[in-house]
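Help! Submission page says 'invalid entity' but I think these are all valid:
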Amino acid sequence: MADAKLKKAKVIFVLGGPGSGKGTQCEKIVAKYGFNHLSSGDLLRAEVESGSPRGKELQAIMEKGELVSLEIVLALIKDAMLKLVDKSPYFLIDGYPRELEQGTRFEAEVAGCHVVLYFEVTEEVMKQRLLKRGETSGRADDNEDTILQRLRTFTSKTEPVIKHYADKGKVIKVNASGTIDEVFGVVQQEFAKREIK
Ligand SMILES: Nc1ncnc2c1ncn2[C@H]1C[C@H](O)[C@@H](COP(=O)(O)OP(=O)(O)OP(=O)(O)O)O1
Ligand SMILES: Nc1ncnc2c1ncn2[C@H]1C[C@H](O)[C@@H](COP(=O)(O)O)O1
Ligand SMILES: [Mg+2]
Protein backbone atom coordinates (compact mmCIF):
# COMPACT_ATOMS: atom_id res chain seq x y z
CA MET A 1 0.00 0.00 0.00
CA ALA A 2 2.71 2.46 1.06
CA ASP A 3 4.81 1.29 -1.90
CA ALA A 4 1.90 2.04 -4.25
CA LYS A 5 1.82 5.62 -2.89
CA LEU A 6 5.55 5.97 -3.56
CA LYS A 7 5.06 4.96 -7.20
CA LYS A 8 3.10 8.19 -7.67
CA ALA A 9 5.86 10.38 -6.20
CA LYS A 10 7.32 13.09 -8.42
CA VAL A 11 11.00 12.45 -7.97
CA ILE A 12 13.63 15.09 -8.65
CA PHE A 13 17.13 13.61 -8.55
CA VAL A 14 19.53 16.37 -7.47
CA LEU A 15 23.02 15.82 -8.84
CA GLY A 16 26.30 17.70 -9.10
CA GLY A 17 29.85 17.20 -7.97
CA PRO A 18 30.91 17.43 -4.33
CA GLY A 19 30.45 21.02 -3.16
CA SER A 20 28.42 22.07 -6.19
CA GLY A 21 25.68 23.33 -3.85
CA LYS A 22 23.09 20.53 -3.90
CA GLY A 23 22.28 20.72 -0.19
CA THR A 24 22.26 24.53 -0.17
CA GLN A 25 19.84 24.75 -3.10
CA CYS A 26 17.63 21.97 -1.72
CA GLU A 27 17.20 23.97 1.50
CA LYS A 28 16.03 26.96 -0.52
CA ILE A 29 13.67 24.84 -2.61
CA VAL A 30 12.17 23.31 0.52
CA ALA A 31 11.66 26.77 2.05
CA LYS A 32 9.85 28.07 -1.05
CA TYR A 33 8.05 25.01 -2.43
CA GLY A 34 7.64 22.75 0.62
CA PHE A 35 8.98 19.69 -1.20
CA ASN A 36 10.33 16.68 0.68
CA HIS A 37 14.14 16.57 0.77
CA LEU A 38 16.32 13.53 1.35
CA SER A 39 20.10 13.50 1.07
CA SER A 40 21.74 10.10 0.70
CA GLY A 41 24.92 11.51 2.24
CA ASP A 42 22.99 12.82 5.28
CA LEU A 43 21.25 9.45 5.71
CA LEU A 44 24.62 7.68 5.58
CA ARG A 45 26.19 10.13 8.04
CA ALA A 46 23.28 9.50 10.44
CA GLU A 47 24.05 5.78 10.20
CA VAL A 48 27.72 6.51 10.97
CA GLU A 49 26.68 8.65 13.96
CA SER A 50 24.63 5.75 15.33
CA GLY A 51 27.96 4.02 16.05
CA SER A 52 26.74 0.70 14.61
CA PRO A 53 29.29 -1.75 13.13
CA ARG A 54 27.78 -1.00 9.73
CA GLY A 55 28.29 2.71 10.43
CA LYS A 56 32.02 2.13 10.95
CA GLU A 57 32.30 0.35 7.59
CA LEU A 58 30.40 3.17 5.90
CA GLN A 59 32.66 5.81 7.42
CA ALA A 60 35.78 4.09 6.08
CA ILE A 61 34.34 4.04 2.56
CA MET A 62 33.19 7.68 2.73
CA GLU A 63 36.60 8.84 4.01
CA LYS A 64 38.15 7.26 0.91
CA GLY A 65 35.75 9.21 -1.32
CA GLU A 66 34.22 6.03 -2.69
CA LEU A 67 30.60 4.98 -3.07
CA VAL A 68 28.86 2.75 -0.54
CA SER A 69 26.83 -0.23 -1.68
CA LEU A 70 23.70 0.36 -3.67
CA GLU A 71 21.61 -1.95 -1.44
CA ILE A 72 22.36 0.10 1.69
CA VAL A 73 21.67 3.49 0.11
CA LEU A 74 18.52 2.38 -1.67
CA ALA A 75 17.06 0.87 1.52
CA LEU A 76 17.82 4.05 3.51
CA ILE A 77 16.21 6.27 0.88
CA LYS A 78 13.13 4.12 0.49
CA ASP A 79 12.54 3.99 4.26
CA ALA A 80 12.94 7.75 4.53
CA MET A 81 10.57 8.35 1.60
CA LEU A 82 7.89 6.19 3.18
CA LYS A 83 7.90 8.45 6.25
CA LEU A 84 7.29 11.56 4.10
CA VAL A 85 4.99 10.28 1.40
CA ASP A 86 1.87 12.07 2.65
CA LYS A 87 3.54 15.49 3.01
CA SER A 88 4.22 16.46 -0.63
CA PRO A 89 4.17 14.58 -3.94
CA TYR A 90 7.59 16.07 -4.82
CA PHE A 91 10.78 14.49 -3.50
CA LEU A 92 14.21 16.07 -3.89
CA ILE A 93 16.58 13.12 -3.77
CA ASP A 94 19.94 14.81 -3.19
CA GLY A 95 23.10 12.88 -4.09
CA TYR A 96 21.35 9.93 -5.69
CA PRO A 97 21.75 8.13 -8.12
CA ARG A 98 25.54 8.29 -8.02
CA GLU A 99 25.95 5.42 -10.50
CA LEU A 100 23.78 4.08 -13.32
CA GLU A 101 22.51 0.99 -11.52
CA GLN A 102 21.25 3.11 -8.61
CA GLY A 103 18.96 4.93 -11.03
CA THR A 104 17.73 1.77 -12.72
CA ARG A 105 16.98 0.01 -9.45
CA PHE A 106 15.27 3.07 -7.96
CA GLU A 107 13.03 3.49 -10.99
CA ALA A 108 12.13 -0.21 -10.98
CA GLU A 109 11.54 -0.52 -7.23
CA VAL A 110 10.49 2.89 -5.93
CA ALA A 111 9.32 5.49 -8.48
CA GLY A 112 10.09 6.97 -11.88
CA CYS A 113 12.36 9.96 -12.32
CA HIS A 114 10.43 13.17 -13.05
CA VAL A 115 13.56 15.27 -13.75
CA VAL A 116 17.22 15.53 -12.79
CA LEU A 117 18.36 18.86 -11.40
CA TYR A 118 22.07 19.08 -12.20
CA PHE A 119 24.32 21.73 -10.68
CA GLU A 120 27.35 22.26 -12.89
CA VAL A 121 30.46 24.06 -11.65
CA THR A 122 34.22 23.72 -12.14
CA GLU A 123 36.31 21.34 -10.06
CA GLU A 124 38.38 24.25 -8.74
CA VAL A 125 35.28 26.03 -7.40
CA MET A 126 33.99 22.81 -5.82
CA LYS A 127 37.34 22.19 -4.17
CA GLN A 128 37.56 25.72 -2.75
CA ARG A 129 33.98 25.56 -1.43
CA LEU A 130 34.64 22.24 0.28
CA LEU A 131 37.93 23.34 1.84
CA LYS A 132 36.11 26.39 3.23
CA ARG A 133 33.21 24.22 4.44
CA GLY A 134 35.77 21.92 6.07
CA GLU A 135 36.86 24.73 8.42
CA THR A 136 33.59 24.28 10.33
CA SER A 137 31.65 21.28 9.01
CA GLY A 138 33.30 18.51 11.00
CA ARG A 139 32.81 16.29 7.92
CA ALA A 140 35.54 13.67 7.71
CA ASP A 141 35.54 13.94 3.91
CA ASP A 142 36.09 17.72 3.72
CA ASN A 143 39.86 17.39 3.33
CA GLU A 144 42.03 17.77 0.23
CA ASP A 145 42.81 14.06 -0.37
CA THR A 146 39.21 12.93 -0.02
CA ILE A 147 37.93 15.85 -2.09
CA LEU A 148 40.20 14.85 -4.99
CA GLN A 149 38.99 11.26 -4.81
CA ARG A 150 35.34 12.37 -4.60
CA LEU A 151 35.84 14.49 -7.72
CA ARG A 152 37.29 11.44 -9.52
CA THR A 153 34.36 9.28 -8.37
CA PHE A 154 31.92 11.92 -9.63
CA THR A 155 33.57 11.98 -13.06
CA SER A 156 33.83 8.22 -13.49
CA LYS A 157 30.57 7.07 -11.90
CA THR A 158 28.07 9.95 -11.76
CA GLU A 159 28.67 11.86 -14.99
CA PRO A 160 27.43 8.81 -16.97
CA VAL A 161 24.20 8.99 -14.93
CA ILE A 162 23.70 12.61 -15.98
CA LYS A 163 24.35 11.69 -19.61
CA HIS A 164 21.84 8.81 -19.36
CA TYR A 165 19.05 11.13 -18.18
CA ALA A 166 20.11 13.93 -20.55
CA ASP A 167 19.63 11.51 -23.45
CA LYS A 168 16.05 11.06 -22.19
CA GLY A 169 15.53 14.85 -22.11
CA LYS A 170 15.17 14.84 -18.32
CA VAL A 171 18.09 16.99 -17.19
CA ILE A 172 17.75 20.58 -15.99
CA LYS A 173 21.34 21.84 -16.13
CA VAL A 174 22.00 24.84 -13.91
CA ASN A 175 25.22 26.86 -13.91
CA ALA A 176 26.05 26.75 -10.18
CA SER A 177 29.00 29.12 -10.20
CA GLY A 178 27.05 32.25 -9.24
CA THR A 179 25.95 33.33 -5.80
CA ILE A 180 23.50 31.15 -3.90
CA ASP A 181 20.63 33.51 -4.75
CA GLU A 182 21.60 33.73 -8.43
CA VAL A 183 21.64 29.94 -8.71
CA PHE A 184 18.30 29.70 -6.93
CA GLY A 185 16.87 32.30 -9.34
CA VAL A 186 17.71 29.99 -12.25
CA VAL A 187 16.23 26.99 -10.43
CA GLN A 188 12.95 28.86 -9.98
CA GLN A 189 12.84 29.85 -13.67
CA GLU A 190 13.49 26.27 -14.74
CA PHE A 191 10.82 24.91 -12.39
CA ALA A 192 8.31 27.45 -13.72
CA LYS A 193 9.01 26.33 -17.33
CA ARG A 194 8.14 22.76 -16.35
CA GLU A 195 5.22 23.68 -14.07
CA ILE A 196 7.00 22.24 -11.07
CA LYS A 197 5.31 23.96 -8.12
N1 LIG B 1 26.52 29.35 -5.00
C1 LIG B 1 27.38 29.26 -3.98
N2 LIG B 1 28.35 30.17 -3.83
C2 LIG B 1 29.23 30.10 -2.81
N3 LIG B 1 29.22 29.13 -1.87
C3 LIG B 1 28.27 28.20 -1.99
C4 LIG B 1 27.31 28.19 -3.04
N4 LIG B 1 26.48 27.13 -2.87
C5 LIG B 1 26.93 26.48 -1.79
N5 LIG B 1 27.98 27.12 -1.24
C6 LIG B 1 28.77 26.72 -0.07
C7 LIG B 1 27.96 26.15 1.05
C8 LIG B 1 28.85 25.02 1.58
O1 LIG B 1 29.75 25.53 2.53
C9 LIG B 1 29.67 24.59 0.38
C10 LIG B 1 29.15 23.34 -0.32
O2 LIG B 1 27.75 23.48 -0.57
P1 LIG B 1 26.78 22.26 -0.32
O3 LIG B 1 25.41 22.75 -0.58
O4 LIG B 1 27.06 21.64 1.00
O5 LIG B 1 27.26 21.30 -1.49
P2 LIG B 1 26.85 19.82 -1.85
O6 LIG B 1 25.67 19.40 -1.04
O7 LIG B 1 26.73 19.74 -3.31
O8 LIG B 1 28.16 19.03 -1.37
P3 LIG B 1 28.31 17.50 -0.91
O9 LIG B 1 28.19 16.67 -2.12
O10 LIG B 1 29.70 17.48 -0.35
O11 LIG B 1 27.27 17.22 0.12
O12 LIG B 1 29.64 25.68 -0.53
N1 LIG C 1 23.91 7.61 -3.60
C1 LIG C 1 25.06 7.24 -3.00
N2 LIG C 1 25.66 6.06 -3.33
C2 LIG C 1 26.79 5.69 -2.77
N3 LIG C 1 27.46 6.41 -1.85
C3 LIG C 1 26.91 7.58 -1.51
C4 LIG C 1 25.69 8.05 -2.03
N4 LIG C 1 25.39 9.24 -1.49
C5 LIG C 1 26.38 9.51 -0.65
N5 LIG C 1 27.29 8.53 -0.65
C6 LIG C 1 28.54 8.48 0.13
C7 LIG C 1 29.75 8.74 -0.74
C8 LIG C 1 29.89 10.24 -0.65
O1 LIG C 1 31.22 10.66 -0.92
C9 LIG C 1 29.51 10.49 0.80
C10 LIG C 1 29.01 11.89 1.06
O2 LIG C 1 27.85 12.14 0.28
P1 LIG C 1 27.34 13.64 -0.03
O3 LIG C 1 26.13 13.51 -0.89
O4 LIG C 1 28.45 14.30 -0.77
O5 LIG C 1 27.05 14.28 1.27
O6 LIG C 1 28.51 9.52 1.09
MG1 LIG D 1 25.37 17.83 0.34
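Support: the input was valid. A stray whitespace character was the problem, and the output above is from the cleaned input. The first helix runs from residue 2 to 7.
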